[in-house]
Amino acid sequence: MEQLVLKVNKFEEGLWSFYLLLPEDLSRKYIDQGIKRLMCSINGNEAFHTGLMPDGKGGWFIMLNKDRMKRYKLTLGDVVGVSIKPDESKYGMPMPEAFEELLYQDPEGSKYFESLTPGKKRSLIYIVDKPKSENLKISKAIIILEHLKANHGLLDYKVLYEDLKNK
């Protein structure tokens, strides 16, 4: 596990907002090993799954969304203690129990899900895990698996979002 002291930065434009810029030598070490998913803890708080993101200038950063900024009471310019290590989980994020059970019970849906890229798997896991209600999680997981089976493993986000909205 790497222990670092980093400053909270903010992009002035573009899609991302707050971030922690990693030292170039450490970033290179992970990237050269093919590691882009990390477990990250800030100021000793519970570790979260995250990805190494390229800044477009040869550097790499960890994004801090609004929720994390609020939860950890962070502001622009704060200097924080950061612990990082490679994320060795199967999907690079926690798998909701309901989705895992449905994948186990549905071999065809599971086959299509497992054939997706890691990023697409994470986006579907995120969709399932976002609601607080367990019933809603199960409903979303069923819709996703039905979508994958109906499209022989092809993911059409536009159609999927319509299905999720209308069912």
Task: Report on this structure.
By secondary structure, this protein is of the alpha+beta class. Helices cover 43% and strands 23% of the residues. It has 7 helices and 7 strands. The protein has a 7-stranded antiparallel sheet with strand order 4-3-7-1-2-6-5. Strand 5 and strand 6 (60-64) form a beta hairpin. The longest helix is centred in the C-terminal third of the chain and has 17 residues, at 134-150.
Annotation keywords:
single chain; 167 residues; 7 strands
Taking all Cα atoms into account, the compactness measure Rg is 18 Å
Main sheet: which strands, in order across?
A: 4-3-7-1-2-6-5
H-E order: EEHEEEEHEHHHHH
- Residue ranges: pLDDT <50 for 5 or more in a row? none
Structural class given helices, strands, pairing? alpha+beta
Q: How many individual β-strands?
A: 7
- Percent helix, as a range, is 40-55%
- What characterizes the major β-sheet? 7 strands, antiparallel
Q: Helix count?
A: 7
Q: End-to-end span in angstroms?
A: 44 Å
How much of the sequence is in beta strands? 15-25%
How would you describe the shape?
Answer: elongated
Mean pLDDT: 93
Topology:
Elements lengths: L1 E9 L7 E4 L2 H9 L4 E6 L5 E4 L1 E2 L5 E5 L1 H6 L7 E8 L10 H9 L1 H8 L3 H12 L4 H17 L6 H10 L1
Antiparallel strand pairs: 1-2, 1-7, 2-6, 3-4, 3-7, 5-6
Helix pairs in contact: 3-4, 3-6, 4-6, 5-6, 6-7
Brief write-up:
The chain is 43% helix and 23% strand. It has 167 residues and is of the alpha+beta class. Helix 3 (97-105) packs across helix 4 (107-114), helix 4 (107-114) crosses helix 6 (134-150) and helix 5 runs antiparallel to helix 6.
